[in-house]
What we know:
By secondary structure, this protein is an alpha+beta fold. The chain is built from six helices and seven strands, in the order E-E-E-E-E-H-E-E-H-H-H-H-H.
Amino acid sequence: xxxxxxxxxxxxxxxxxxxxxxxxxxxxxxxxxxxxxxxxxxxxxxxxxxxxxxxxxxxxxxxxxxxxxxxxxxxxxxxxxxxxxxxxxxxxxxxxxxxxxxxxxxxxxxxxxxxxxxxxxxxxxxxxxxxxxxxxxxxxxxxxxxxxxxxxxxxxxxxxxxxxxxxxxxxxxxxxxxxxxxxxxxxxxxxxxxxxxxxxxxxxxxxxxxxxxxxx
Length: 216
Ligand SMILES: Cc1cc2nc3c(=O)[nH]c(=O)nc-3n(C[C@H](O)[C@H](O)[C@H](O)COP(=O)(O)OP(=O)(O)OC[C@H]3O[C@@H](n4cnc5c(N)ncnc54)[C@H](O)[C@@H]3O)c2cc1C
């Protein structure tokens, strides 16, 4: 089932449950470049009529914002875990790749790069734990939480940094030796736009931070 929001004639946002089998609903697969298993699709509505029982919210944007606010945090957990897994995967390869008679991990430039990757992963984890703790205490803003958004932004940027660093020290293996890194990149790119584009999060966080004590 789908939760769809539509503006009504009074400029209010109405949230509806729509089933794929409802008359007039067409669902077609969308070819994203990553996250193919999440089943991205486009929905076309043609003269669809729904009973009032399908209306789950009506009013301002609050219902949608509340839903997206929480989902932003869930997605961020995935990015953080994916990035730590990437680090482990990369380290395992660097331990067994031997160049000039030594594991490449013994070269100081490679060890230093792994160090920077580790720092980024730990910084991401620390930020995520802080936001999760606040959410657990009920201390996050229900409709738009600045720290949830900052966490999504920061942890996505760290993930981009970590894959960039990994590809510098993996050599050709990162490109044609193991499809893991390419899949990571393709999946990760989706977080640049999903759950609020990085660009728009910066603007919203900046505006909220500057104007409201509530978000200080
Ligand atoms: C894997 C994935 C899953 C998704 N899942 C969902 C989902 O479940 N539900 C859902 O509704 N959507 C979903 N999305 C869509 C996603 O939320 C949108 O891509 C995102 O909100 C950006 O909207 P847009 O693509 O129309 O970009 P645009 O609105 O075209 O924005 C592109 C860029 O234009 C600029 N821009 C746009 N508007 C403004 C503005 N007002 N002020 C300043 N700059 C602006 C910004 O730089 C922005 O980054 C998903 C996307 C992905 C990739």
